[in-house]
Amino acid sequence: MSNNFASSAWKSPSNIALVKYWGKKDVQIPCNSSLSVTITRSHTVTRTEIIEKPGKQGPGFEFYFEGVRQPAFEQKIQDFFQRVERFIPAVSRNFLRINSRNTFPHSSGIASSASAMSALSLTLLDLEEQIGGRKFSREEFFRNASIMARLGSGSASRSVYGGYTVWGYNDSLEKSSDEYAIPVNHLVHKSFMNLYDSILIVEPGAKAVSSTKGHALMENNPYAPARYQMANRHTGALLGILSMGDFDGFIDIVEYEAMTLHALMMASSPWYILMQPATIQMIRKIVDFRKQNAVPLCFTLDAGPNIHLIYPQQSRIKVLDFIKDELIQHCPDGRWIDDKLGDGPEKMNG
Fold this sequence. Notes:
This protein starts with a strand and ends with a strand. Helices cover 36% and strands 25% of the residues. By secondary structure, it is an alpha+beta fold. Helix 2 (112-132) crosses helix 3 (138-152) and helix 5 (224-244) runs antiparallel to helix 6. It contains eight helices and 14 strands. Strand 2 (24-25) and strand 3 (29-30) form a beta hairpin. The longest helix has 21 residues, at 112-132.
């Protein structure tokens, strides 16, 4: 038997980087700024409870994913707690039960660590307010959540906000920081505020090389210094493009960033390739379809083989037909996820 005396539940979405973060230093500090868009339907729901449990007094936790305890993942969370203890001094003195679930399949081409670590950070800060006698301003709450999420997973720093976010210092953007992400929706033209993200699953399994290893390989990549400069330029340039509503400019940078990310993998030592033949086939079809039909759509890739197809609402009917007629055949079992730009995390009842 256990006695729950405080709990918090949040859902937090994943995000897809348009300007990529690839390469880090110190403790989850990015080597370049990145710009992302937060999606909505692909999210994690996490409930964290402070409990009194006989024989288990004092600090500690249990972690459950979709109802099943996950001891193998608990070491990662233990490391995370050590990094964020200063933000949650009252909570960290208690025993916690953490329950988490995703609305998207595991290994489905969506950054689950981003949604998972942001959701967990939000619940912990919420509990700190409940039992620690602290009251954060709205800005302070989400900034602290972004810092905490970053310490668990770099890209998670961007998932505590809806829409467009920038993480990493960039001299073109006031208040940008390596420590946390900031929302930039106020800089974005209304034509970019209703985008869809159709995620085409080429390979549902775990990646051959993890993102953690991929970041580490950037340390000796001979192209890394030039890459970091390029990414910072692209962040500033894409902010300008988003403010003007220039979809052609958006396509140029977003697709170039996607291909550069995978070129860096191929230029690592040891080199590796995460794109699959189906990835290349779909990219060619997407480019041909755009040229032949003058439909504004573009692709991007995460650190894997799966394609994110991004397009505005006015193109939706044509793009859905295109997916059905030409692209779905490249997805095992016809798997794809229909997602869109979202409003960010949401506190849940109970």
